[in-house]
Amino acid sequence: MDIPQDLKTVEWRDGRVVMIDQTRLPGELVFVEYETYGQVADAIRNLVIRGAPAIGVAGAFGLALAASRSTAGTVDSLMADLCTARDELLGTRPTAVNLKWGLERALAAAEKCTDADSMRRAVVDESLAMAEEDVKTNKEMGKNGSGLIGDGETVMTHCNAGALATVSYGTALGVIRATREAGKNIRVIATETRPVQQGSRLTAFELMHDGIDVRLIPDTAVGYSMAQGLVDKVVVGADRILGTGHVYNKIGTYQVAAMAARHGIPFYVAAPLSTFDLDSGPEDVVIEQRKAAEVTGIGDSMTAPDGVGVINPAFDVTPPELISGIITEKGVAAPPFKESIRALFG
Predict the structure, then answer these.
(1) Which residue positions hold the site described Transition state stabilizer (predicted)?
(2) Which residues pair with 214 in a beta bridge?
(3) Which domains, from first to last, does the chain contain?
């Protein structure tokens, strides 16, 4: 498969939102185009696009479609249309905070305008600015994290926090990319990340494309790999980070962190400041529950008895005491996290 080096997960092109259909990877690279915010909402809900930073920008682009397609002639009527679109987009993935951040930032740009046409331009321009900033942010984060990885070390990662989870470059995989760009030899162990297998389908795909040594393991082999001395560091992404240092990420992250603590392996989280939620406590966060079919079958093939009950949370929470550091574009926060996170935000 011929893949451009400057590949973008999501972008604004000729008044449409264009994104990679990640449900089709790694078998084929397919780009899909959307003309309405409802289509973008469905894409986020159905994991055509996923990853906290990526859906933050996608949500903003969805709002840009709502603005550009609206026939409203006044500020008030256009704002009403934008709020309707915001509510639908926001309801697609309740745990990842970047989605709310992207929508609110685009809406705030519209609120500064005094006429409908300038509002439309402002939402599009702000969304484009977010997409450009995402790449710069990821590269800064990568540089900040690369100093934590030694030459010749093996890094374990969970789920996909790479270019496909952002506009480009990646968060956790951005740290891995920056480490190699710094001239260090690095190896990666990627978990398959059941039930949707973002690790085997996406992370392994990205790293192999970049020529980075990657080995794939079943989720159940995390403890084995660590006990065998195969892992030096763990770096994962995040969908929401609280001011307390609690990290919400793909289901299974907590287990990886707990096993890393058991074996004395540093566990790092890489995420931009837009992933932080300083207003909520652990009791406020809604964990998204996904459909049973993701667990009971693969494609059209059933792998479980018909009618079996299913618990299928999309995310779990890793407590701060299991985390060695949180890598951001502004630096690395270290325990105690309440103080270090507050310092990141000035």
Answers:
(1) 159
(2) 188
(3) 10-138 (1.20.120.420), 143-344 (3.40.50.10470)
